[in-house]
């Protein structure tokens, strides 16, 4: 029987794990998965449960841990006192509670406050000695941060030398402006590099760099807001007695300060400040996620003190997630690889949380109907998880008179075939199959993609040209392409045509699981493709497998078995498979290939450029590198945007950090050997 307290305990544990996980994504990886509001909701629930059901065991909840881990690559700076976080409120009532709590804590005195914008960047602590910057650190876990002095010195708006020779430790926020973020991402996109999700991640990724040159090349800025410590003898700093004066003093020292701070004498003043900025923050060129309300008098701050995590004298008023109004100028239907029709709202471009948004998925007909989005409507757009734009709702009061509900087409917009909606599915599907140009396009792109047949050089643009020229009507046509066919297309010269023909030829020896995946059967992803290849070993055996046999495989359910059978009994698909076989495409699973021949499948790392870092247990690094080369991989010494993989052992070097910031996939030793074992490959001994 599950007891009530058992349920609570489990929930508390689950919340702690979840929050620790999201802390790690946010602070360590700079890759948040949930919005601040969602995060705060988890923390609120955990706080409530921990209060109501105190558990035995470690007293320190994850909530008390204010930040993330520090990277072992960078020098470590210890903080005293700890670098605290803030408690959050989400509405004016909660803000009033904070105000009353402070007033009560102070007895008869009525408190005065300073309001500031809360910049969405990352906290830094800087030490100045006699006016010179001597150390800068990230917040890390609040007790220890990363030494980023060399990087901060290269951030232009942060003075290395103050205009007065003061000695103090201060705190502020490093951020990237929206315009710098947009420009940086545009540049990265052009260079084929991963783009940053938002300005905060871009700032964090740019500051937490081992190479200060990288930081210098990114346009970072900062605002400062707190004196953490002063040298006792520093009279110039000692006479600063309020938060308001602190900010003015910073300005005098030529330290950048967010200029919209305000002295608030009463609760009404605070409310006004909140209301004003809730509407105005879009006009700024930097992201703000709230306001910070601080008790103005510094000596009174000390009287109130702090908890382990946050001061009692300040609070963060968090803004609701940003929603922006824009006009729907069209609704477009796109057709995916499996024929699914997806409606997308085409929007008048608008800036949402730092990026320009001009499209938002409407997912399917049900959602489109429920939201009743029409061309001509004004809609609120929000970034789901701060990343993917979505339509929140239509502003019906602004609807023009002449709009009509959107009619889902009964014919495919790409090929004109009938569109059907299968029972129990929200999606409409085009019945045109390979005869549908849109499906064919997606199918060919998928077939050639990196995880499928990995045909380098056969990307979207080339596929479009081949389809337009009528050179590819089914996926097997890829193997009929000659250099001359490619030369007839606008983007090819002799060299590139020869290269593509070569990589098409090479792809013929891909192992069976890749081919199964490449064929694009519904519900057959990479993992299921591998399971099928393991089980049947040849394409022929898979073609002959019955539905009963398929469902008897542990990882294969009815849905997958049905899909595989339907696909393989379709005459057109059978024809394609036969034709692939005739043209020499491998139909065998890994070690089923004839013994004695060099097994092309062994080249599982073919064409991949791999960086190896750290020390390894299974074999010395040198031997490991030779093995990678035997498997077709290219071992390179430094991480760049062209690196496919970083293989990390123990005590990995700065390369690991670089890979993280550049979004290059990373595998650790154990996982790498497991992956190889799955391919039937074990490292050579001796
Ligand atoms: S005061 C003890 N003021 O918000 C002082 N923080 O969610 C606590 N932040 O970790 C911080 N702008 O990184 C303060 N004007 C501001 C701020 C600010 C941004 C950040 C800071 C803090 C986080 C708390």
Estimate percent helicity: 25-40%
Secondary structural class: alpha+beta
- Tell me the CATH architecture of the largest domain: 2-Layer Sandwich
Quote the distance from N terminus to C terminus.
56 Å
How many separate domains make up the residues? 5
Q: With helices defined by DSSP (H or I, 4 residues minimum), what is the helix count?
A: 25
Which stretches are poorly predicted, pLDDT < 50 over at least 5 residues? 56-61, 63-67, 592-599
What percentage of the residues does DSSP assign to strands (E)?
Answer: 15-25%
Shape: globular
Small-molecule binders: 2-(butylsulfanyl)adenosine
Oligomerization: single chain
CATH topology of the largest domain: D-amino Acid Aminotransferase, Chain A, domain 1
Please, what is the CATH homologous superfamily of the largest domain? Answer: DNA ligase/mRNA capping enzyme
The first-level CATH class name of the largest domain? Alpha Beta
Q: Mind describing the biggest β-sheet?
A: 7 strands, antiparallel
**Gyration radius, in Å:** 30 Å
Total strands? 22
Mean pLDDT score: 86
3D architecture notes:
The strands form five sheets. Strands 12, 13, 14, 15, 16, 17 and 18 form a seven-stranded antiparallel β-sheet that branches. This protein has a five-stranded mixed β-sheet with strand order 2-11-10-3-9. Helices cover about 35% and strands about 20% of the residues. It is globular and about 90 Å long. Strand 21, helix 24 and strand 22 form a beta-alpha-beta unit. Mean pLDDT is about 85; it is low at about 55-60, about 65 and about 590-600. It is built from 25 helices and 22 strands. Bound molecules: 2-(butylsulfanyl)adenosine. 2-(butylsulfanyl)adenosine binds near residues 85, 86, 119, 225 and 292. 2-(butylsulfanyl)adenosine (IVH) binds near residues 85, 116, 123, 173 and 225.
């Amino acid at each position: 029987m599950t007891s009530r307290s058992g349920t609570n305990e489990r929930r508390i544990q689950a919340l702690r794990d979840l929050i620790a996980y999201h802390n790690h994504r946010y602070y360590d990886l700079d890759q948040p998965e949930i919005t601040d509001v969602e995060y705060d909701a988890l923390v609120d629930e955990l706080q409530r449960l921990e209060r109501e059901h105190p558990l035995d065991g470690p007293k320190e909840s994850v909530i008390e841990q204010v930040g993330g881990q520090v990277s072992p690559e960078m020098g470590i700076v210890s903080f005293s006192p700890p670098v605290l976080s803030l408690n959050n409120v989400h509405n004016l009532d909660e803000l009033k509670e904070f105000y009353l709590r402070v007033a009560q804590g102070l007895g008869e005195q009525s408190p005065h406050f300073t309001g500031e914008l809360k910049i969405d960047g990352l906290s830094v602590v800087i030490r100045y000695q006699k006016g010179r910057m001597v150390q800068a650190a990230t917040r890390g876990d609040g007790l220890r941060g990363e030494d980023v002095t060399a990087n901060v010195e290269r951030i232009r708006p942060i003075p290395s030398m103050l205009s007065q020779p003061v000695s103090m430790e201060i705190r502020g926020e490093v951020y990237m402006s929206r315009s710098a973020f947009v420009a940086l991402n545009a540049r990265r996109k052009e260079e084929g590099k991963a783009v940053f999700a938002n300005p905060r991640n871009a700032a964090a990724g740019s500051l937490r760099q081992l190479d200060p040159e990288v930081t210098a090349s990114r346009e970072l800025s900062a605002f400062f807001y707190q004196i953490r410590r002063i040298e006792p003898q520093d009279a110039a700093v000692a006479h600063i007695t309020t938060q308001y004066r602190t900010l003015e003093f910073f300005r005098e020292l030529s330290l950048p300060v967010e200029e919209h701070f305000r002295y608030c004498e009463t609760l009404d003043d605070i409310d006004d400040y909140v209301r004003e900025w809730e509407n105005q923050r879009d006009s700024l060129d930097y992201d703000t996620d709230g306001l910070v309300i601080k008790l103005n008098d510094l000596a009174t701050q000390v009287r109130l003190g702090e908890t382990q995590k946050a001061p009692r004298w300040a609070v963060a008023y968090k803004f609701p997630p940003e929603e922006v109004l824009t006009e729907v100028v069209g609704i477009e239907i796109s057709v995916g690889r499996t024929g699914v029709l997806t409606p997308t709202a085409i929007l008048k471009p608008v800036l949402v949380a730092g990026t320009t948004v001009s499209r938002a998925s409407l997912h399917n007909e049900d959602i489109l109907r429920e939201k009743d989005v029409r061309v001509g409507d004004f809609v609120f757009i929000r970034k789901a998880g701060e990343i993917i734009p979505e339509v929140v709702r239509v502003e019906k009061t602004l609807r023009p008179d002449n709009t009509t509900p959107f009619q889902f087409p009964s014919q495919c917009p790409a090929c004109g075939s009938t569109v059907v909606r299968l029972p129990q599915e929200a999606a409409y599907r085009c019945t045109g199959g390979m005869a549908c140009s849109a499906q064919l396009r997606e199918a060919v792109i998928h077939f050639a993609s990196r995880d499928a047949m990995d045909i380098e050089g056969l990307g979207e643009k080339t596929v479009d040209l081949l389809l337009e020229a009528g050179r590819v009507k089914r996926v097997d046509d890829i193997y009929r392409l000659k250099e001359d066919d490619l030369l007839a297309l606008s983007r090819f010269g002799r060299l590139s045509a020869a290269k593509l023909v070569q990589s098409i030829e090479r792809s013929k020896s891909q192992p069976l699981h890749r081919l199964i995946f490449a064929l694009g059967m519904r519900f057959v992803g990479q993992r299921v493709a591998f399971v099928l290849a393991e089980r049947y070993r040849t394409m022929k055996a898979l073609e002959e497998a019955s539905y009963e046999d398929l469902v008897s495989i542990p990882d294969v359910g009815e849905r997958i078995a049905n899909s595989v059978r339907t696909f393989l009994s379709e005459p057109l698909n059978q024809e394609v498979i036969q034709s692939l076989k005739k043209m020499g495409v491998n139909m065998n699973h890994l070690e089923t290939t004839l013994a004695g021949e060099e097994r092309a499948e062994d080249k599982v790392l073919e064409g991949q450029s791999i960086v190896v870092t750290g020390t390894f247990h299974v074999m010395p690094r040198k031997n490991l590198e030779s093995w990678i080369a035997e498997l077709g991989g290219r071992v390179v010494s430094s991480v760049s945007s062209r690196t496919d993989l970083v293989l990390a052992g123990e005590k990995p070097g700065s390369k690991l950090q670089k890979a993280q910031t550049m979004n290059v996939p990373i595998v650790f030793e154990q996982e790498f050997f497991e992956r190889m074992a799955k391919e039937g490959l074990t490292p050579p001994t001796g």
